[in-house]
Specification:
This protein is of the alpha+beta class. It has a domain at 1-38. The protein has helices at residues 34-37, 48-53, 65-69, 74-92; strands at residues 12-16, 28-32. The model has no long low-confidence stretch (mean pLDDT 73).
């Protein structure tokens, strides 16, 4: 192939251009995007089975786990808050 035309308008596109009369044959015009010529980065996939096998080695940074373990009664917490508010309001009077 003697004649290659480069264009930045289309990503990956080749055509025979009969209107370019440079020699005795029909030249091929090739257009491509330089990004498509690069080797794509390997995608990292999460393997759930490997996570389950290494569960004892993983560090859990779940900040809500103490809330799950705590035995919290909503009524008891509300009563404690109400008592604290009344005590502070009496102290400020």
């Amino acid at each position: 192939m003697k004649h290659v035309s480069l264009s930045y308008n289309r990503e990956s596109w080749c055509t025979a251009n009969k209107y370019i009369d440079i020699s005795d044959h029909m030249p091929i015009t090739a257009e491509w995007n330089f990004d498509s010529l690069e080797i794509p980065a390997k995608k990292i996939k999460i393997n759930a089975n490997r996570i389950l096998l290494a569960a004892d080695q993983l560090i859990n940074s779940n900040r809500f786990s103490p809330l799950i373990d705590a035995d919290m009664d909503l009524n008891q917490l509300s009563e404690g808050l109400i008592d604290t508010v009344w005590a502070e309001s009496k102290r400020l009077q």
